[in-house]
Amino acid sequence: MLSRAFAVTRCLPLAAFFVATSVSALEFPLPPPGEDIVGEVQVIQAKYEDTFADLGVANDLGYLEMVVANPGVDAWLPGEGTEIILPTRYILPPGPREGVVINLAEYRLYYYPKGGNVVHTYPLGIGREGWSSPVADARITAKTPNPGWTPPKSILAEHAAAGDPLPAYVPPGPDNPLGPYKLGLSVPGYLIHGSNKKFGIGMRVSHGCFRMLNHNVLKLASMVSVGTPVRIINEPYKFGRSGDKIYLEAHAPLDETGDASVVDKHTAVINALLKNDEFAGLRLDWEMLREVVAAEDGLPVEIAQPGQALVATEPAI
């Protein structure tokens, strides 16, 4: 049986292994009807001064997705010549491909321009534990360049209790935590905005709002309009089809009360597969499925192909 790591890399085109310093903004052509995967995983060689935070900014990737895609590599000092995986291949989120789609478990936003045949995707900082970002259907209600910030009473109280009092108002500028642009949402109290800190994008760091890299929020703001739908989901396990094969992309589930057990995670994935008629008549690689769910590294991996139909119980080990 192939290892999960080899299953990921064996499908990469030769170009994916060429050394690169950065990739362009993550904009991909939409796949053909009935298919779900965009992009390609890339492998670069680190320079001496590189960190995952810097590589993330340069490549539109979040900090945690860099960490989980590169187990065993020091995030702050990878080392000259170290091979670094850039996880720039994605299974598109389930549901309509329109407007803005945010997948909390993935720390990532997808934007489908109306009338276009492309998707743009950006890393996000989301609400930390106790300040969770919502799951909701919303829309963009306002666009504000160079915003000022009036901290809510709850945040003022939190900072005061921690001995770090905030001013009642922060004017626009480099010290403003909303960055150069904010997008209002129809869910009261929540925004999509930039940040005055590059570290934290792709992590649970906010009070529920969605933080973006400043160059990303400026690009998004230039494309979206007031009224654009925003669908916020929480899908740690994404299934996708490419050709006649089925792929699984697994992320660590967001949980406020403690981590789910490995058994519970496997059960959730298997039940989702069995309930989806689209996957009937496929031969499932149980060992690979277990490895993908255990790794939670956000890399799409082939788990099924045509053959014997899916069965409800795993084979004996």
From TrEMBL:
Residues 1-25 form the signal peptide. Keywords: Cell shape, Cell wall biogenesis/degradation, Glycosyltransferase, Hydrolase, Peptidoglycan synthesis, Signal, Transferase. Pfam families: YkuD. One of its GO terms (molecular function) is glycosyltransferase activity. The active site is at residues 193, 209. Pathway: Cell wall biogenesis; peptidoglycan biosynthesis. Residues 98-233 form the L,D-TPase catalytic domain. InterPro entries: LD-transpeptidase (IPR050979), LD_TPept_cat_dom (IPR005490), Transpep_catalytic_dom (IPR038063). GO terms for biological process: cell wall organization; peptidoglycan-protein cross-linking; regulation of cell shape. Coiled coil: none annotated. GO terms for cellular component: extracellular region. PANTHER family: L,D-TRANSPEPTIDASE, L,D-TRANSPEPTIDASE ERFK_SRFK-RELATED. Belongs to the YkuD family. This is L,D-transpeptidase ErfK/SrfK. It comes from Pseudomonas guineae.
